[in-house]
C-alpha cells in the first residue's frame, strides 16, 4: 500500500475555517469580493452547507453553515469574533469598495499605513473581520520604527 502524505500537496499548512449562518450567500460574497474560486462543496442532510473550500489567490478558506450539534458556531453566537483574516490584494480600494457594495461594514477605512501597506478592515455580513491590503512601499526597519514612533506621538 502506498504511503499517504500527512499534508496533501493541494492544501496549505494553515487554513482558516469559517462558520456562518447562510454559507451559500457567504460563498457568493467571497466570490464577488475576492474573486474566490470554489474548489468543492458538500451539502448537509438538512440542506445547509456542511463543508466548502474556496481558493483566494494561492490561499484557501474552508467554511460551513453554523452547526451547533458539532460545536460549529458563527461569530454572532459569541457576540462577534476576536479573529481577523488578512488578505493581500492587487487593488485594496477596489476590493474594499466591492465588499461594502456587497453588504460589508467598514471598520477602518482604507488608508496608507506607516509600514508600507495601504489597508482597511471590514466586517462581512456574517460577522467575520477582514483586513485587506496592497503593499505600496518597501520600508526599511529603521524607517518603520521612526514612522511608528511619530504616529504614536500623534
From TrEMBL:
One Pfam family named in its UniProt record: Glyoxalase
Tell me the organism's taxonomic lineage.
Bacteria, Bacillati, Actinomycetota, Actinomycetes, Glycomycetales
Q: Where is this region: Disordered?
A: 135-154
- Mark out the compositionally biased spans (Basic and acidic residues): 135-148
CDD domains reported in the protein's UniProt record: VOC_like
Origin organism is Glycomyces rhizosphaerae
Superkingdom of the organism of origin: Bacteria
- Specify the VOC domain's residue ranges: 10-135
Q: Which interval of the chain is the signal sequence?
A: none
Protein name, per record: VOC family protein
> InterPro entries, per this entry?
Glyas_Bleomycin-R_OHBP_Dase, Glyas_Fos-R_dOase_dom, VOC_core
Q: Which Gene3D superfamilies match?
A: 3.30.720.110, 3.30.720.120
Amino acid at each position: 500500500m502506498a504511503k499517504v502524505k500527512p499534508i496533501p500537496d493541494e492544501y496549505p499548512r494553515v487554513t482558516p475555517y469559517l462558520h456562518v449562518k447562510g454559507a451559500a450567500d457567504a460563498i457568493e460574497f467571497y466570490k464577488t469580493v475576492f474573486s474566490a474560486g470554489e474548489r468543492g462543496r458538500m451539502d448537509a442532510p438538512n440542506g445547509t452547507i456542511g463543508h466548502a473550500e474556496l481558493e483566494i489567490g494561492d490561499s484557501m478558506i474552508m467554511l460551513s453553515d453554523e452547526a451547533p450539534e458539532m460545536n460549529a458556531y458563527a461569530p454572532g453566537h459569541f457576540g462577534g469574533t476576536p479573529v481577523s483574516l488578512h488578505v493581500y490584494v492587487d487593488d485594496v480600494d477596489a476590493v474594499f469598495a466591492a465588499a461594502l457594495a456587497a453588504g460589508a461594514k467598514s471598520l477602518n477605512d482604507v488608508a496608507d499605513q506607516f509600514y508600507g501597506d495601504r489597508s482597511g478592515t471590514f466586517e462581512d455580513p456574517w460577522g467575520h473581520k477582514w483586513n485587506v491590503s496592497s503593499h505600496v512601499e518597501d520600508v526599511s526597519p529603521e524607517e518603520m520604527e521612526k514612522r511608528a514612533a511619530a504616529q504614536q506621538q500623534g
